[in-house]
Amino acid sequence: MSDDKINMNHGAGGEVMANLIASTILDNISKKSVNGGISLDALDDGASIPLGDYEIVMTTDGHTIDPLFFPGGDIGRISAAGTINDVSVMGAKPLAISNAIIMQEGFPIEDLDKIMKSLNETCEEVDVAVITGDTKVMPQDKLDGIVMVTTGIGIAKKGEVVRDSGLQVGDKIIVTGSLGDHGMSLMSFREGFGFDTDLKSDVAPMWNIIKKALDVGGVTAMKDPTRGGFANAINEMASKSGNGIVLEQDAIPIREEVHAVSEMLGIDPFEVANEGKVVMGVKADKAEAVLEAIKGEKYGENAAIIGEVVDGDYVIVNTPIGGERILEAPIADPVPRVC
């Protein structure tokens, strides 16, 4: 495909998508902040609008996942969780979402019913309301199944919004669970490889885990490692903060099933999407307490401290045999249409 046409990599969460956003989307939009809040040019997981003693945090997500139903979830659950998590990683309590649905003519009403029930159940896990939306139908040959677009709103005390750029030298890096589950389970299921595992997506709302971490204190930066995976998220956090990060490979939780599938397919689990994990920087003197609090929450039992922030401009992984490798941001997520 020519360079002047959109291809699948432009939506895959890596370097190609970042270049498109920077060169075409941002260049054509006035990047104004509202009341001095976080604006579009920050390229964080959301933006903020200061109002009195509080800040409203807002984010929008489009969902084109294939297949619509997969082990561990469906497009309804991922639409709700993805948007809730983008609000949550900014330190804001998620309050409500809107939901726009664009469907193909002939889409089964039974499937739509399941999807909406799933979206609602996911919201109820963290006491989020679905308060508005829109529904459109397109001709059968103009759309593949269903597309959902969700917008989330949350609230934080003024000055307490967490940026993905806030890492400081000495901070510990915590990941709230095993990496690669969503992307690898989706790939094996979608392609029908027949792997004999119980691997399923990790898709889940993260607010309850994040609230526990914030209550302990010391959280300096957060990001949910979706498209482009952990590799993209950790590199973005390092780059934006102007620091380096050293990770211990042995400390990073990855399920045996994910290892097996990734080796068979030749895909790095660090580069595939997660839909129920958070990467966070935490002050060293608070890290153990934050980890303990996270481990006590649903979806947090496999949380781990995996590295620390250092002076530098790189992300390095120390390997079990005493070597080290540079972990770079991927060109694109190797598993397309994962969210």
Concise overview:
Belongs to the HypE family. With 339 residues, the protein is an alpha+beta fold.
Describe the structure.
The structure is a single chain. With 339 residues, the chain is of the alpha+beta class. It has 2 domains: 31-157, 60s Ribosomal Protein L30, Chain: A (2-Layer Sandwich); 172-326, Phosphoribosyl-aminoimidazole Synthetase, Chain A, domain 2 (Alpha-Beta Complex). Helices cover 28% and strands 25% of the residues. The protein is built from 8 helices and 14 strands. Strands 9-11-8-12-10-13-14 form a 7-stranded mixed beta sheet, sandwiched between helices. Strand 13 and strand 14 form a beta hairpin. Helix 2 (75-88) packs parallel to helix 3 (109-125) and helix 5 packs antiparallel against helix 8 (287-295). The longest helix has 17 residues, at 109-125. This is Hydrogenase expression/formation protein HypE2.
